Amino acid sequence: MPQDRYGLDDLLRIMQRLRDPETGCPWDLKQDFASIVPSTIEECYELAEAIEHGDFDHVAEELGDVLFQVVFYSQLGREAGLFDFPGIVHTLADKLVRRHPHVFADGDIEGVVRGDLDEQQVKEQWEAIKAEERLARDQAHALADVPTALPALPRAQKLQKRAARVGFDWEGPAGVFEKLDEELAELRAAVAAGEEAAISEELGDLLFTCVNLARQLKVDSETALRGANAKFEARFGAMEDAVQAEGRRLEELDAQALEQRWAAAKAALASTKGG
Predict the structure, then answer these.
(1) Cα separations (Å) of 20 from 81, 268, 273?
(2) Which domains does the chain have, with CATH numbers?
(3) How far apart are CA 104 and CA 115, in angstroms?
(4) In the 3-class helix/strand/coil scheme, how is 252-269 assigned residue by residue?
(5) DSSP label at 14?
(6) pLDDT value at position 139?
(7) Structure pTM?
């Protein structure tokens, strides 16, 4: 019979049942570490979208889906004799306590530290502790543990932040603006020459520099681009709705008409936002 309120132990047991070789789910039994990675990434993006939309009922559901990914990996690890859920919890708790000595006195969860650190001091301490951890793992290079599986935009930002911590950085946005002009000129030259490989390379350099500019301006590049995507989607949808209301389709309009419709959609949405 279904329970009124399931707990974490129930969730772990459900996962065990799903992976039972004789009575489990055929789909779950076919999965391995690599095969569920796409689902993990997808669930994280769905969680981010729910948060952005302020849909907190959905946020709770998506958090559950993300938690299920952790439980799934823990079951796979237990079956292979690599790790289990209690081990994951211990590792996480140990790391959190270790990285917050300004909160947990003497590494004790209930230990209280007297005296305050400001946010910048906390960040510096956090990075110093992480650097010590990298050394302990024989990862001496500043960029050693920046995951290659990260999407390119946040990975570029993370690489730049790491480089900046050892002094390899612009002094301010002005230098990045100059670099942006330089990269744009190089891209124009590659396009004019029709060199496909050079075009791809120079475009990558331009995007990388844009991320650097965002960082200098204290803007998260991923958040900024997601905002731009949402704005474009809203404007395009408004333009499409206006045309369809007239019994027409966008494909029927020429470039000049499309530009006029786009301008009208921008103005209409700006007016609504302003109101």
Answers:
(1) 16, 57, 54
(2) 8-98 (1.10.287.1080), 105-136 (no CATH), 152-219 (1.10.287.1080), 229-274 (no CATH)
(3) 12
(4) HCCHHHHHHHHHHHHHHH
(5) H
(6) 62
(7) 0.67
